[in-house]
């Protein structure tokens, strides 16, 4: 029998508010262990949570960007389970009345876009982190992360392949980055993803028995884990064994999923309304304010770039594929009104360096002003395209301005006839065959001679000037 | 000079005139402690008679205050009279403690209590039972039994307790002192080790009504650290006590005067009614029809919340840690099991198991959800009464103090000793217990006045006028 996979994703995103969700502690990554803590996020006896309004505001933005309906009346609940990284042994979360639900996300696929329904987005708190030292039998707990505001974004089971899951994550992350509410860094744990996957006979509409996959540390790992799990479930069903509902962990080393706990061992979270936080109202004006505060989202920006600057869909997508990249492009435009030229440099040489060094344009030693200076040097003919690429490389390495590098490396293009004259004479004298060919009517022969001029001038000669001078001499 | 017998307001005038210094009061209390504490055993651990007077010159400047062992004070042991919190030193002040310090009060020490406030007799403390100062063979009530007993025994001038189902009022009644359970949200719970978050309130326990009004005025008010604290201004309760009570309308609920009520308590209530009528108060009989469900609703909601609130006592961060055995599933599970097994007493375990059960998948709707709905009906009963009446009069406890050990083997009969106080917490309204006579056994009897939300001033007014026209609050136990 042919099976088709059905996938739903649960994404957790840490909100980068200044302070934690329910106390005043700094919400930062990478501090010394247990330095951003207080009685509240430690869950000390007697402490009480108070909602950080900024976390709710950030959460509202996400819900609205995903087209969710916002509940006017919502509440927090306690999710009870024991684990040493959870200071109170319950997590403040939202159970039956999430603050928003019923949204959607249009994901970009090879053959167009597909709408994925978002089931719910809710706000909760993160747990601390266990540390297992190499030596000694004890584990340690770092509570810095405890109480960090966390959004859980749950999709409907609308994804039908690992590639669709990958596209969903990519497009979701892009929106979250545009909203500027999270670092979305899977390695640092500020974005995490669990995947539910089941198989059903191709062409049917029901849902099969699912497994829940955890412990994927990159989008790539999500795709690999889903690939593996689909094959595993196919093999089970193919052998006549039913799929067991269970939670499985992705093992990066072994490149396979391994069982963690079965349905019977699943926690009973004993949810009940959090009595320390009264239910609250999200007013129409708060929702409207959040809506007004939404930035231009990736899809809108992509369409605007294509329409306003005449870019191809692919180029517009590349320019908007990271908010920092699109911002950089727009900052360049403010300084230099030649969108196609700037886009050419960004999509070409700059992207090449981004891919080979850092991952983000902000990690490069490049500012909109310094890139514009470089582009202008090329556009006004002061240096050649080729020299421009060399200058860019040097800029990224030394951080020096383009003009200074041109001067130091003596890369300025030679365009005046006087300086080129001697080189031209030398090339004509040394390449008798090509000269004869040209005189015999093979006009293309001049290109070889231009190449020789470039070689002798170490690339500094302006090829256009050199060509004109050669033709003039040879026709004389 | 017998300073310990005085009220806070009496000491206030002596301090203001300079005839008494704060340290004199503490020295006097030290003497009292040394002579009677071995009988009463009101404290969780020996208090400090050092003058820890705080900065400001507020309403309680120079007055020592005892707090219940479940209220955090920075640098002090706060163990909720439970083995599981052994050695826990609070690194911060509860908001009420901060407010007491700002008013110039000094925190003298921590009073004994039922473990985690689970109890009505002070017998579940991991340290020792506290005795009733009026009869050392009897319980002081609970869970704030230590707080009430130390005030009744003149070992303290004033104390704070906490009240989840009657834990201030019932022991106040049994010890013959004044105890107020304020409106839910009137006093910040920040720093009160939670039992049942939607029911808990901190309140004052004092020798008379005026002292009580002053202490509540100090500790009440909105707190940014407690999302359930109300943004409602705090009246001058002391000034309010003076206002006239003629024309006040008081309701008597017929459901509160049925079987199980001690004849002496019933008789005392008749006399209270006559006395208040003579002061110009008008009475009427009303019905609070859902009263009969209150105890069941309470033991579902309170234990459910407690099972979650007390989950944090696991041996990881603070308090007791016991390592597990080799046969446990893992070292972690073993630590959880052993720590909680050794750390919690029998009554705590009973309630945590009950609370865990009622929240469990498949039972939630039948228990917690249904109890929450009935809770709303109980509140609506009060709402209706308060449309026509200013307050409700009931006994605080169906009986005077019972004997130590009398009910420990019978949890249900113990739970019923809070039958008159529990509805008040479920409804979130304020109530005060005021001494209103003595049983033939010589044990004190208390009456309870229940007010509308944030109607504490009305309660103080009625209680003060009653107190002024009766001798009960002046009586002292012979120790």
What does this structure look like?
In chain A, about 40% of the residues lie in helices and about 20% in strands. Chain A has about 475 residues and is α+β, with helices and mostly antiparallel strands. Chain A has a nine-stranded mixed sheet with strand order 2-6-7-10-1-11-12-13-14. In chain A, strands 5-4-15 form a three-stranded antiparallel sheet, with no helix packed on it. The longest helix of chain A is centred in the middle third of the chain and has 20 residues, at about 220-240. The radius of gyration of chain A is 30 Å and the shape is elongated. The termini of chain A are far apart. With about 475 residues, chain B is α/β, with parallel strands linked by helices. Helices cover about 35% and strands about 10% of the residues of chain B. In chain B, strand 6, helix 8 and strand 7 form a beta-alpha-beta unit. In chain B, helix 6 packs antiparallel against helix 15 (about 455-470), helix 9 (about 295-310) crosses helix 11 (about 345-360) and helix 9 packs across helix 12. Chain B is globular and about 70 Å long. The model of chain B has no long low-confidence stretch (mean pLDDT about 95). The interface between A and B is large, with 29 and 44 residues.
Helix content of chain B: 25-40%
CATH superfamily of the domain at 3-245 and 451-474 in chain B: Amidase signature (AS) domain
Could you give the order of strands across the largest sheet of chain A? 2-6-7-10-1-11-12-13-14
CATH topology of the domain at 3-245 and 451-474 in chain B, by name, is Amidase signature (AS) enzymes
Question: What is the count of β-strands of chain B?
Answer: 10
Q: Give me the side-by-side strand order of the main sheet of chain B.
A: 2-1-3-5-4-9-10-8-6-7
Counting copies of identical and different chains, the oligomeric state is: heterodimer
- Average pLDDT over all residues of chain A: 92
User: What structural class results from the helix and strand content of chain B?
Assistant: alpha/beta
Count of discrete alpha- or pi-helical segments spanning 4 or more residues of chain B: 15
Determine the number of helices of chain A (DSSP H or I, runs of at least 4 residues).
15
- What fraction of the residues of chain B are assigned to beta strands by DSSP? 5-15%
Helix content of chain A: 40-55%
Strand content of chain A: 15-25%
Chain pair sharing the greatest interface: A-B, 29 and 44 residues
CATH architect. name of the domain at 3-245 and 451-474 in chain B: Alpha-Beta Complex
Q: How would you describe the shape of chain A?
A: elongated
**Rg result of chain A:** 30 Å
Number of strands of chain A: 16
- Report mean pLDDT of chain B, rounded to a whole number: 96
Q: What order do the SSEs of chain B take from the amino end to the carboxyl end, as H and E?
A: HHEHEHEHEEHHEHEHHHHEHHEEH
